[in-house]
Amino acid sequence: MNKILLIIEREFMSRVKKKSFIIMTLLGPLFFGAIMVGPMLLAMYGRDDSKKSIIVLDESKFFTNKLKEKENITYTYINSTNLDSIRSSYKKSGYFGVLFIGKVDNFTPSNIRLFAEEQPGLELISNVESSISKELEKRKLEKYNIPNFQEILKDIKTEVNIRTIVWNKDGSEKESSAQIAMGVAYIAGFAIYMFIFLFGVQVMRGVIEEKTSRIVEVLISSVKPFQLMMGKILGIAAVAITQLIIWVILTTGIVIFAQTMLLDQKTQTAIKEYSQNSPQIGNLANGSDAVKLDGNQQKMVDFMVALKNINLPLIIGSFVFFFLFGYLLYSALFAAIGAAVDNETETQQFMLPVTIPLIFSIIIMMQTFQNPNATLSIWCSYIPFTSPIIMMARIPFGVSGWEILISGIILVASFLCLTWFSSKIYRVGILMYGKKTSWAEMWKWLRYKN
Amino acid sequence: MNLLTAEHVEKRFANHLALDDVSIEVPEKSIYGLLGPNGAGKTTLIRIINQITGPDKGEITFAGRKMKAEDIYQIGYLPEERGLYKKMKVGEQALYLSQLKGLSKSDATKQLKYWFEKFEIQNWWDKKVEELSKGMAQKVQFIVTVIHEPKLLIFDEPFSGFDPINANLLKDEILNLKKKGSTIIFSTHNMESVEELCDHITLINKSKNILNGPINEVRKKYGSNVFELSFHGDLIKLGECLDSNYSLIGNSDENGLKKALIKVNNYSSDNRLLNMILPAVEVTGFNQVIPSMNDIFIQVVESYNHANGVSAN
Fold this sequence. Notes:
The structure holds 2 protein chains of 2 kinds.
Chain A: H1 2-16, H2 19-45, E1 52-58, E2 73-78, H3 83-89, E3 97-101, E4 104-105, E5 108-109, E6 112-116, H4 122-142, H5 149-156, E7 164-167, E8 173-176, H6 178-212, H7 215-219, H8 225-262, H9 265-276, H10 281-286, H11 295-309, H12 312-340, H13 348-370, H14 375-380, H15 387-394, H16 401-429, H17 439-446
Helix pairs in contact in A: 1-8, 2-8, 6-8, 6-12, 6-13, 6-15, 8-12, 9-11, 12-15, 12-16, 13-15, 16-17
Chain B: E1 2-13, E2 16-27, E3 31-35, H1 42-49, E4 57-62, E5 65-66, E6 75-78, H2 90-100, H3 105-118, H4 134-146, E7 152-156, H5 164-179, E8 183-187, H6 191-197, E9 200-205, E10 208-214, H7 215-221, E11 226-232, H8 235-241, E12 246-254, E13 257-264, H9 270-277, E14 282-288, H10 293-307
Parallel strand pairs in B: 3-8, 3-9, 6-7, 7-8
Antiparallel strand pairs in B: 1-2, 1-4, 4-5, 9-10, 11-13, 11-14, 12-13
Helix pairs in contact in B: 2-3, 2-4
């Protein structure tokens, strides 16, 4: 036991001290932070704020002073019909472009064109389109001579913002969000996939290094092959966990920092208020009286509240478990592969069967987001080679405890079983050189006695 | 008393018999030579002694009883194919390997300091292994093999990669260890060093033990019928005086120093031969030719292979 600890210590220290590890550990959070803060920044500052004034040449006379102006889009209506003369002069007068609206017959616009030197943005185009279609709809409605039409128009204006609330069995209720669940599931599933690959391959490389440098010949007389293999796998697991923890802490730090810097005071108090008083349907409908929020702020609050309302202890607990055992299961295989070959180029034929279930998992994960309780997803969340990723993809959407438990037990049992097989291949393989290993050869090794 | 014995050990890999009824007895405080052509099964035997792999049949005893798992701490093994972690510092690595042998960190540090000073390599401590030459790395490996002062030391080709000066240093160190009470199993193809160091030898060929015993007896056994004669006088006269029991099988004449090799066909006393020669020439030297281990090795292996109808490989 003491020896395994020594080996773990060496594997851990020799990797943690490497420059590449330190750089990756520090750069990772910046990268993840950018991914998380980026959309926030975009929402705040990403809009094209340059003012665009458009000259409108309206032959139909339907839309004069009817196009909806926005902060950054203004319309100037003129009567001239000479496009060519405008073309030569509009730029000098500081306009962005020219909107030409042809005659409208039977409320059907057929000749609407927007001229500009630069490609106009989507915002401008959709503004023009929606203004025109709204105006036409209005005019069509007016034809029916409905009394109090203006009041009705005002009255039917509605903003829709759906909140989904999950009724828990214990009678409480919680706000949920499918998007948030998917985001969490995606991050968790993908992190497991990435770490298994990254660190599983490190196990394999480590074994190959020991084998080709013949250090294993020196070690093998003082430690058992199983100790050597487990020490390496666990030592690298410790490296993975260290990196993960540092990443999570630093990324959280960066996001919290960005949040306080970027979100305005009003939004932040709203988030606090919502998450403290578990929102009841009543006050949700009314909205909090203390703070009235505009659409953007409301969206941000919804996002933050939903994020705070997911079952974080369960998700973190399962993540650590599936992350660890998923890695252990695969790295036992990677260790056996490393022992069976003489150099890294020979690993390809053995790598394929190991990587296929991993890649398959990612594909199934995407399906799982659409329907977390599809038969295939449920099955894959029990099969040990796919369960770490698929179960993690299902949990944020709500999976009952016993399902997680069974999947976990299957995973641990398969890990123990597979490690036993791998150690048999490892034991023979590490002292075998110069021979190209085949599947048949490995099968023979499995049956060697002691 | 024997520190280690192997009794009727057999080991089979898939379709190849690596050891076939091999027995050895390694006396305490001796240097035991384990010889044999490549692929004869020496490394397999050494791995069985190190408990890296187990025998299919037969038994290993250590210090008079069946070998136990803990006995591994009493063995120091320097494998033929050996390496170190290239990216690790020499000192850290030596410390790690010593701790794996069961030494505490403080004991290991103390012992390493002693050996590093002895080999005058203190300034390597913080160097990375990849900066060392092959011979330098071998020194470090030798140190971590002997650091825990084991009862049994197994050296597989210890001199490979050493220059003559360092090889000598190592040879002295091995003899020193023997003097301090270690028992040493020594596997090599360098027959000169076998003659210099070994007390006993075993020759393994084609998975079988085909020759063993104390080295002096082995050499005498293969050297009993040829004599080397130094003389003044006429070579032809010497030839004429020998009867049919003797034959002249070689001669040399270097700067007036004449030598002749005489083979005894059937056993007879040495004096009978001398009496025959003395009237013919003036004898200045007369001794039995003891063949080198190299000759014995080649002779024994080739005649075994010939008798058993197998090729040299």
